[in-house]
């Protein structure tokens, strides 16, 4: 279940009010299996009413991507505000409220997509509309791109736009999801706004074990593909990559240390200060799932598939291993096939299924970001 914090102490001005209206519209459209075009059509109309150049580009029927441009003076190259409006499915999850009917309760807003990523899409749209209505032009064009298919690799959205309509989204700077807004426990104030300068990528693998098949009443006595696969998955579950503190992560780790309690805060402080992990600190950080993922490649089984019904022996037992949000610096190297030596027992094949290419890290101290962050702070 996804939820978003609302800061009661922040007075809602016109831009916040409009962002809330847009968010409500977006949340009421189920985009868990496509259907982005239907969600974006009202936003195209909003932009056009404000005199903003906006268009809806479909990578496939129903897979819409909105691109809008608020013209500035052209003194500087554009700023791209990028968000996705597709969401992950809700089937099989214990929702206590309708997932596509926004419900506010106890200071929280419940609906699929509130925090990933329709709230950002709504905020970007409202900000762009405010800029368009202002008599003072920005020093650069402001581009808003709201995309499809991010949850399944971006093939229908951001990647498709980059490959087919690069001119529409080409910019000097881009902001998208991946950072964090940290508020006080009582929701009274914003404590930090974090910018992620890189994102861990992933590679999924299909582990397949072949069997003889047949009826479950007469199973073979010498082999079982499911048991063989289970042994391999246990080894994968025990696999632990070496820790590495990336230079770009140190400030974020230091900030996380301020919000934690000993011994985790102490271990994080050491990591941020030295850029390395002692065995003692690694043991502490390794017990916290968020801190652990900051410093190492992870590896986890996410899907299983075998026989089509309960009285049939499987001819194939297959698992999907998501390997593993590898850190960008080690993706191509240590995570190229992390399961190959971990899943040794039995007859099996391991094939790369899907992954994302790694990109360069944005310099946290680069002049462009430093200037923009300083401007935002003012």
Which residues sit in consecutive blocks of at least 5 with pLDDT less than 50?
Answer: 1-11, 331-336, 373-378
Identify the CATH homologous superfamily of the largest domain: Zn peptidases
Structural class per helix/strand content?
alpha+beta
Strand content: 15-25%
Shape: globular
The CATH class of the largest domain is identified as Alpha Beta
The structural domain count equals 3
Topology at a glance:
Elements: E1 3-5, H1 14-27, H2 36-49, E2 53-58, E3 64-70, E4 76-84, E5 103-105, E6 108-110, H3 114-133, E7 140-147, H4 158-164, H5 166-169, E8 173-175, E9 180-183, E10 190-194, E11 203-210, E12 214-215, H6 225-238, H7 250-259, H8 264-274, H9 279-285, H10 289-295, E13 300-305, E14 312-313, E15 316-322, H11 331-334, E16 349-355, H12 367-377
Parallel strand pairs: 4-7, 4-8
Antiparallel strand pairs: 1-6, 2-3, 3-7, 5-6, 9-10, 11-15, 11-16, 12-14, 13-15
């Amino acid at each position: 279940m996804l939820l978003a914090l609302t800061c009661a102490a922040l007075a809602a001005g016109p831009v916040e009010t409009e962002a809330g209206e847009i968010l409500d519209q977006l949340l009421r459209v189920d985009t868990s299996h496509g259907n982005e075009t239907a969600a974006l059509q009202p936003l195209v109309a909003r932009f056009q009413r404000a005199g903003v150049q906006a268009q809806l580009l479909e990578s496939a029927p129903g897979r819409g991507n909105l691109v809008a441009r608020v013209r500035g003076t052209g003194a500087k190259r554009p700023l791209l505000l990028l968000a996705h409006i597709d969401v992950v499915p809700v089937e099989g999850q214990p929702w206590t409220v309708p997932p596509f009917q926004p419900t506010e309760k106890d200071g929280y807003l419940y609906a699929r997509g509130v925090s990933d990523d329709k709230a950002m899409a709504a905020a970007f749209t409202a900000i762009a509309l405010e800029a368009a209505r202002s008599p003072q032009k920005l020093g650069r064009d402001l581009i808003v791109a709201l995309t499809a298919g991010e949850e399944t690799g971006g093939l229908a959205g951001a990647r498709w736009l980059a490959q087919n309509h690069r001119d529409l989204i080409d910019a000097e700077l881009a902001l998208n999801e991946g950072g964090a807004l940290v508020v006080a426990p009582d929701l009274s104030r914003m404590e930090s706004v974090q910018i992620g300068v890189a994102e861990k990528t992933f590679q999924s693998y299909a582990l397949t074990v072949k069997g003889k098949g047949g009826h479950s009443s007469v199973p073979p006595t010498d082999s079982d593909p499911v048991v063989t696969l289970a042994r391999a998955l246990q080894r994968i579950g025990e696999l632990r990559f070496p820790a590495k503190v990336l230079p770009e992560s140190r400030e974020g780790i230091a900030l996380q240390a301020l919000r934690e309690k000993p011994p985790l805060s102490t271990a994080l402080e050491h990591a941020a200060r030295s850029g390395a992990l002692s065995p003692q600190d690694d043991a502490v950080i390794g017990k916290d799932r968020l801190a652990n993922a900051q410093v190492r490649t992870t590896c986890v089984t996410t899907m299983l598939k075998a026989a089509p019904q309960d009285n049939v022996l499987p001819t194939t037992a297959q698992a999907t291993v998501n390997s593993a949000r590898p850190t960008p610096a080690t993706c191509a190297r240590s995570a190229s096939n992390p399961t190959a030596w971990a899943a040794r027992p039995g007859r099996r094949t391991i094939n790369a299924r899907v992954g994302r290419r790694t990109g360069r890290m944005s310099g946290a101290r680069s002049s462009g970001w430093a200037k923009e962050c300083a401007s935002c702070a003012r």
